[in-house]
Amino acid sequence: MPRSSSAPPDRLPASGVDDGSSTIVSRGAPPPCLDRLLTGPEVRALVRLSRSTVWRYERAGKFPPRIPSSNRALWRESEIAAWIAGTWTPRENSS
After folding, report:
1. pLDDT in tens, 45-85
2. Which spans in the chain are helix H?
3. DSSP label of 7
4. In Å, what is the CA distance from 44 to each residue of 35, 55, 90?
5. Non-local CB neighbours of 37 within 8 Å, separated by 6+ positions
6. How far is residue 11's CA from residue 74's CA, in Å, rounded to a whole number?
7. Sequence-distant (≥ 6) Cβ neighbours of residue 10 within 8 angstroms
8. Minimal CA–CA distance to 82: which of 39, 44, 49, 47?
9. Residue 57: which residues within 8 A CB-CB, separation 6 or more?
10. pTM surpassing 0.90?
11. What are the respective helix, strand and coil percentages of the chain, to the nearest 5?
């Protein structure tokens, strides 16, 4: 069934039908609750710090904490970007 919508294909209302009363949801970007996870080498390349310096800063509360993982260190991309920008603040619950 053809879609009769005045909205571009990448911006449709949550219902999928443009009736003029729905809130528009962008399909181009992920929801704000999703955050890419970065590996240790990716983080170190971005922040230009050694593994031991990242570890020391993290333990002192000066660097975003890693996400618990069974076999590697992972960090939230948004927190690393905030740390680089100087706007990072520690999370209440560091999980």
Report:
1. 999 999 999 999 999 999 999 998 888 889 999 999 999 99
2. 40-47, 51-59, 77-85
3. S
4. 18, 11, 19
5. 67, 74, 75, 76, 77
6. 32
7. 26, 27, 28
8. 47
9. 49, 63
10. no
11. 25, 15, 60
